Amino acid sequence: MAEEQGRKWDRCLADSAVKLATGLGVGIVFSVLFFKRRTWPVVFGLGVGLGMGYSNCQQDFRSPYLLHGHMVKVSKSHTS
């Protein structure tokens, strides 16, 4: 049980970091290209990234019985 919680926290933090970085990058690009280097597109992008990360973490922690499957190959034994 504790091991699964650790995995969920790891996935949550990694996913949130990726979404924050993506939001920051998109905000910077929009700020430079379209909005004369204003700061609000950067803040908006960070907020969207943070919100998406939080939503995904909330969904992951609310589904306690969801098991992440692994592909298992079953070998057939020939019995004669």
Automatic annotation (TrEMBL):
Signal peptide: none annotated. Pfam families: DUF543. It is a single-pass membrane protein. It is found in: Mitochondrion inner membrane. InterPro entries: Mic10 (IPR007512). Keywords: Membrane, Mitochondrion, Mitochondrion inner membrane, Transmembrane, Transmembrane helix. It comes from the Eukaryota. The chain crosses the membrane at residues 12-34. The keyword Transmembrane helix applies. GO terms for cellular component: MICOS complex. The keyword Transmembrane applies. Component of the MICOS complex, a large protein complex of the mitochondrial inner membrane that plays crucial roles in the maintenance of crista junctions, inner membrane architecture, and formation of contact sites to the outer membrane. Component of the mitochondrial contact site and cristae organizing system (MICOS) complex. Belongs to the MICOS complex subunit Mic10 family. PANTHER family: MICOS COMPLEX SUBUNIT MIC10. This is MICOS complex subunit MIC10.
